[in-house]
Structures are given as structure tokens and as C-alpha cells.
Amino acid sequence: MKNIKNKSEFLNKKIVITGASSGIGLSASIYFLNLGAQVIMAGRDIDTMNNICQKYNFINATVMKLDLKDDIQIIDFKSSVVERFKKIDLLINCAGVTLYGDVEKTYPQDFDVILDINIRSLYFLINQLAGFMHKNSSIINMSCLYGSKPMSGMISYSISKAGVEGLTRYCAAEFAKFNIRVNCISACPVYTNWFEYIEIPKNEKKDFVNKMEKYIPLGRIANPVDIVKVIAFLASEKSKNITGQIIKVDGGRSLTSSGYVHYKGRLNMNSRIEPDGEKTFYKITNFIESKIFGNEIPKDEKDLERYIEDKMEESCFSKNAQSSYEINYTSVNKYISPKKINDINLKLYSDIKSEPKILTTKKDE
């Protein structure tokens, strides 16, 4: 541990990481703390962050609770960061949310919440913290493949990630005169508890993962350390002439035309599924028979298509559909109504608990 720290260029560097209670944010926190950096870990799940710091005896870590829906919390967070660090060497933005829905099923209030958290709060964090960054410092944002390659059934998320990439380029151009570099990592998919988050039945998880890997040219889903190593590269002297770039860490998936739609979205989003060459309507017949419509299923393709369209028109998704959110407008910010927050099952990525077992203090990978 001592030798690793002594040869690390991140020794005593002052790093701020959002979304630090899980997934990539947690992995990045552990990685840089192992290299002797001083890290502020920010996220909603403060208990998880405290437990990790106690488990590995990270005395250089400072844990702060941060809910990106609240402008006041972001302002208070800025004050706490400046009080603790004075100046910042590296800002890593990992927090975000997702929501499944196509144009028809995504209501304006839903759209507002996703953009508020994924892009507006990111802008506001940079707005608040950029003035306290050292020269030769760096900002690294997290995007997704869907920011540049829109995925059906994910309109709000795709647009928000496109916004993250646009914000990255703009800030890179504006901050270059201060020698502050701004880059973005487009990662997809990454093996965290995201697979539980999308609520695929356990008996289908293995097949789902196999299908995803089949559509990745390198044949594997990334794990958090794959992404963290790219973050470390972009934050290091090795990349001192790189700024305004969107670095894809996707196993070559962006080179292909394949994708998937959320399991629950097979019905909710007009029964679209993976483009694997099979006829959509025949492929979902068994699902419909067992879950939705019973056994009276037309076998002719045209009749089946008409039957499904009729059922969709009768379903609760087309009728009696209500927005997931209630928005209260205040002079400060938009908030999700507490009455709805437990019903919508909206989870920050920082709620996806994924402790990286491969990141240890024994060896600098």
C-alpha cells in the first residue's frame, strides 16, 4: 500500500466524486483512495459510503450526502467542498437516473425529472465548483451509448445523455483557457446491480446477459474497474492534451446495430424487443399467452398484429395513464412529491449497490 501511494501521481490530489455510494462512482472512490488521494464521496446512500470507508480504513475519505434534485443541497455541497479542500484537482460526475418510456408513454413531468437530475444538476455542479479548480485539473462526466445512439423506449434518458455530451464539449472549449480539461466517458453496458434494477426475472437473467454479450463485439460486459481505469487515464498526465472528447468504453457495441428494450417494456412500449431477426409478434406470443391475454391467440401474423393493437388500445397504458410525478414549483427548484416517490420506484444509479471485489489495496491494477 505504501509503495503504491509513493509512486502514484494522485497522491494527496483532491478529488470530488458524485454517485459514490455504488457502481462506477464507488469503484472510482476506492481506486483513488487506494492511490492516496483525498476524496469527497457524495451520494444519497451515506450509510453505504461510511461502511466502505470503515471497512477499508480510508482515512482520506470524506463522505457527504447529496440529493441532486435539490439546488439548495448543491449550493451547500459546494460550500462544504470548498471548506474541506479549498481547491479541487478532479471532479468526477457519476450520479444519474433513468426512466423507461417512449414518446407516447413519457409525460412532460417525467421528462422534466430526468433532465433535471441528469443534465441540469450536472451543469449546476460544474457552475458551482469550476471556479475552485486548480490549473491542470480535470472534469470527467459519465454518459452512455444512448447519448449518441438513441435507444427505443428511452427517450428522456437518451436526450439527457446527449445533453451531457454536449455540455462536456462546451465546457471543454470554455475552460481550456484556464487549462482545465473536460472529457466524458460513454460506457455501456457495465456489470453492476443494474441487472437487478431493471427487474428481469431471475430465471431469465442468464439468457438476458448472454444475449447482451452476443451483441458486443468483444463478447463481454464491462465491469466498473474497466471504466475506472479510463477515468484514471483521462485524469492523468498521460492525457494532458485531450479535452472535449467522448470516450466510448463499450466493447465495440456502438459499432453494431443491435440493442434491447427493458423487460417490462415488451408490453408497455408497444411490444418491441431485441432485433435478433425473429418476427416480433411470433416471439412474444408465449409471453402474451401466459401473462396478459390468456390462450385465445390468433396464429395468423396479420390477425395477431391486429389483436395485439386492439388489446393495447384497451390496456391501462393507453387509457387511464397518469404521469409518474407530481411537480411542485418553488422559487428555488423542482421537487418530486413525497406522496409519489415511493410509488414510482425511481432509483438513482447511486442506489445500485455494487462493491467492487477486484479493487483492493494489494496491487495497483
General description of the model:
By secondary structure, the protein is an alpha/beta fold. It has a domain at 2-200 and 221-256 and 343-351: NAD(P)-binding Rossmann-like Domain (Rossmann fold, 3-Layer(aba) Sandwich). It contains 14 helices and nine strands. The protein has helices spanning 2-6, 23-34, 46-56, 71-85, 108-129, 155-175, 194-197, 202-214, 224-235, 265-268, 280-283, 285-291, 301-314, 338-344; strands at residues 14-18, 38-43, 61-65, 88-93, 133-143, 181-187, 246-249, 327-329, 334-336. The strands form two sheets. Strands 3-2-1-4-5-6-7 form a seven-stranded parallel β-sheet, with helices on both faces. Strand 8 and strand 9 (334-336) form a beta hairpin. Helix 2 (23-34) packs across helix 9 (224-235) and helix 4 runs parallel beside helix 5. The chain is globular and about 70 Å long. Mean pLDDT is 76; it is low at 261-283 and 315-365.
